[in-house]
Specification:
2 domains; binds iron/sulfur cluster; four-stranded antiparallel sheet; eight-stranded mixed sheet; Rossmann fold; alpha/beta
Length: about 325
């Protein structure tokens, strides 16, 4: 495995059982993630994009082992966590953290900000004395642009943007290498979004972090991602460099997502062709046979409804799952 790979995901599946009846018999499964493979390189930001329900958040959570995968492999720095004992998993997990979409829901309303940030330090036994803890919390608060004098306040006393800074500070407390950012700006006012993006970018540079950045629309990840993966109904449809994805999208689903982004130039916006996606994605409990996108794809042919396209490297570093590419 190349030294540059921090996280390797191989044929990862996360199926949630559907239970019914008095005895809770399993009658099916929601195939939230259904066989995705990709690498995340050290120091990069990999954007993961797709409509709601495509499996991007479940992918992020399963990588962090917040869910036990149904099958497949996730290795972090070459270590397969599933094959290691509880102690090693705990030690490794300290290096993998998550920033949540809704900063308010993810912060304990009864804890003071200083305690919220200090908690991971205690859980992972990273500080020996109260003084050391206080200093470290102050240092982390400064790093994310929070006023240290506010450490005894409660989350509800902060604005949305400041709360997300608290969430970021909590994630940074254990000095991680890798952070899953799960739509960290979608719940924030547009005026605040750029500040949080700039902060995340600055932290990545200063601390050498690697991000998996989950977002529901491509415009959000364009400028901060090194590479971008597009998911649909539990599968990866396309994965390539950010530049290639925007300049030369190969998958019809990616093209449709890109065509939904408004161009801030009215004449150009009027002239361009749009691909409108009809309807909602099918249920991940009952995905279509063949290509998952076949029920909505404007280019679908008979083969698409019968045979699942392979996820293959169509150009160097540009992966796509489509029969017509
Ligand atoms: Fe569309 Fe067929 Fe390609 Fe799927 S395989 S994206 S249905 S053209």
């Amino acid at each position: 495995m190349s030294d540059n790979i921090l996280v390797r995901v191989k044929d990862l599946k996360m199926h949630f059982p559907i239970r019914a009846g008095f005895l809770g018999r399993t009658i099916g499964a929601v195939k939230a993630v259904d066989g995705v493979s990709f690498d995340i390189m050290k120091g990069e930001t990999l954007g993961l994009v797709g409509e709601s329900g495509c499996g991007k958040t479940t992918t992020g959570r399963t990588i962090l082992r917040l869910y036990e995968p149904t099958s497949g492999e996730v290795t972090f720095r070459g270590i397969d966590l599933a094959s290691r004992g509880a102690d090693e998993v705990r030690r490794t997990r300290r290096h993998m953290q998550m920033i949540f979409q809704d900063p308010y829901a993810s912060l304990n309303p009864q804890m003071r900000v200083g305690e919220i940030i200090a908690r991971p330090l205690r859980v992972h036994r990273l500080v020996k004395t109260a003084k050391e803890e206080k200093e470290l919390v102050a240092e982390i608060m400064q790093k994310v642009g929070l006023n240290v004098n506010l450490r005894d306040r409660f989350p509800h006393e902060f604005s949305g943007g400041q709360r997300q800074r608290i969430g970021i500070a909590r994630a940074l407390a254990t000095s991680p290498d890798f952070i899953v950012c799960d739509e960290p700006i979608s719940a924030l006012d547009v005026s605040i979004q750029a500040q949080i993006i700039n902060l995340l970018e600055q932290l990545r540079e200063d601390l050498g972090l690697t991000y998996l950045f989950i977002a529901h629309d491509l415009s959000m990840v364009r400028y901060l991602s090194t590479r971008v993966g597009v998911m649909y109904l539990g599968k990866m449809m396309e994965l390539t460099s950010s530049k290639d994805l925007y300049d030369d999208p190969l998958h019809p689903y990616t093209r449709a997502l890109l065509s939904a982004i408004p161009i801030p130039d009215p004449p150009l916006e009027r002239r361009r062709q749009r691909t409108i996606l009809a309807g909602d994605p099918p249920s991940p409990a009952n995905p279509p046979k063949g290509c998952r996108f076949s029920t909505r794809c404007p280019m679908a042919v008979d083969q698409c409804r019968m045979v699942e396209p392979e996820f293959r490297e169509a150009k160097t570093g540009h992966w796509v799952a489509c029969h017509l590419v």
